[in-house]
Amino acid sequence: MNDPRHRPRLVIVGSVNMDLVLRVPHQPKPGQTIRASDFAELPGGKGANQAVAAARLGAESIMIGRVGDDAFGGTLRSQLAGAGVQIDALQTTPGPSGVALISVDDDGQNAISIVAGANGRVSLDDVRAAESIIASADALLVQFELPIEVVAEAVTIAGRHEVMTIVDPAPAPPRGVALPEALYHVDVLSPNQTEAADLAGIEVDDLAGAERAARLLLQRGARCIVVKLGPDGALIVASEAPARHVPSITVEPIDTTAAGDAFTAAMAVALAEGEAIDSAVRFGCIAGALATTTLGAQPAMPMRQRVQSAMQQKTP
Question: Which helix (H) or strand (E) holds 194?
């Protein structure tokens, strides 16, 4: 992928968390106590992760959300600003910041529990007050760690101003729980395999299952579905062309926590720069793979030069 012809402007409406990360030999079973080998407080939250990734990949990155007035809140604000993210629209609200409890095992797999904190206080008024910011964007990124009606309103505002909309439906609602219609009428809907299965209401165990789920989601209004497949890359499904599988590169994973966030942000940056979807997804796959090689969420978001260098590698 070439260097950007212009610096794209990305607005991220999403969560900001402090991640409390444990390294464990394996995930504990119910009732089991195990010894963790390490502990760290690391900045996270799907929205903030994507904002940091976008900034490191060369975009003008603007964060809309809330942190608490606790000690975590001040740290989260300063770390976002230090990463190059614009935080003028990141508000501080009374009470605790969002927190994620993350255990990472020796295989790099994780288990995550989230306390919404200030993220649950992001309101319709917040995104409506930020309409001019959203309208100025080349692309809007949203996830589902905020109240769902707030996410839908952000997408509606972006659509009204013809801003590209990219939805990362994580965490996905349980099967049978309907999403607001606005969240399907987007430019790119990018679930992982589990989320695709939950949204479509079918099992997704292989590429064929991923395509079936994506075709069902297309019928609900999305222009393009990109199913994240972890180390196997991603699957692009749009109504006007056959499905395309985009492979990734082989890495030794340390922590998979924010790989999907790196993928989504990188894909969004490339699309906002005018790249075709296949090239943008390839860029996303590489960024996602590289993110698994570093412990933590935001610390793992790769710089653009590293992603471009890795793109020269042959895919498996």
Answer: helix 193-200
Q: How far apart are alpha carbons 8 and 10 in whole angstroms?
A: 6
Q: Could you say which of 19, 138, 187, 261 is catalytic?
A: 261
pLDDT at 97 over 90: yes
Contact criterion met (CB below 8 Å) for 124 and 149: yes
Q: Write the DSSP assignment of 223-268 as a string of letters.
A: SEEEEE-GGG-EEEEETTEEEEEE-------S--TTHHHHHHHHHH
Domain residue limits, the chain: 9-16+44-97+119-310
Radius of gyration of the chain (CA): 18
Per-chain mean pLDDT for the chain: 93
The residues near 81 (Cβ < 8 Å, ≥ 6 apart) are 87
Q: What is the pTM of this model?
A: 0.91
Mapped onto helix, strand or coil, the DSSP state of residue 118 is helix
pLDDT tens figures, 140-189: 999 999 999 999 999 999 999 999 999 999 999 988 788 999 999 999 99
Instruction: Give the H/E segment covering residue 164.
Output: strand 164-167
Separation in Å, CA 43 to CA 76, 244, 291, 300: 6, 34, 14, 11
Strand blocks (E) in 74-162: 90-93, 98-104, 110-115, 139-142
Q: 122-132, pLDDT tens digit by residue?
A: 999 999 999 99
Q: Which tokens sit at 238? A: 């749009």
Decide if 281 contacts 315 (C-beta within 8 A). Answer: no
> Does 69 participate in catalysis according to the annotation?
no
**Residue 251 CA: distances (Å) to CA of 180, 230, 295:** 37, 11, 14
Report the alpha-carbon distance of residue 262 to residue 49 in Å, rounded: 7
270: Cα within 13 Å, side-chain hemisphere: 25
**Closest of 109, 144, 149, 129 to residue 64, by C-alpha:** 129
> What fold characterizes domain 9-16+44-97+119-310?
UDP-N-acetylmuramoyl-L-alanine:D-glutamate ligase (3.40.1190)
